[in-house]
Amino acid sequence: MTTVTDPALTEIFFGDTHEAGLPLKGSQGFGRLDGSRGVYRANCRTGPVIFMVDQLDKPTDEGVDLTRELLPGYVAVEAERIGCGPEKVTLPNAWVRAGAGPRWAGGTGDTVRTPRPKIRGARIMLTAAPVGAPG
Length: 135
Known about the structure:
Helix content is 15%, strand content 23%. By secondary structure, the protein is of the alpha+beta class. It has a domain at 2-93. It has a six-stranded antiparallel β-sheet. Strand 2 (22-26) and strand 3 (29-33) form a beta hairpin. 29% of the residues are buried.
């Protein structure tokens, strides 16, 4: 999980919010979700902010898709923490899953409450501090 607050650095990820994957909608921004990477750009008072979740391992057959399960909650909590919230991210309808794991469906997409994923041998990338934050 990475938060980029430096306006110059957010431009590096701008293409990721428009290119591959399914569109994400939010109360103050937009983004894309492609299964292993979710990138969301919010328009905050201080300028654009990028929220990103990368899943280093592919989603499992057991219904664990960390990118999908973590991104909405991560954006909501992190946006509040940096004074950019409240922010609510909506997942697209295409993320309806059959079988194990959480399911989402609905008209134009459902607002997600982030469930606690079962993490078995999954690797996620974490950063100690937001990129561009004062040291």
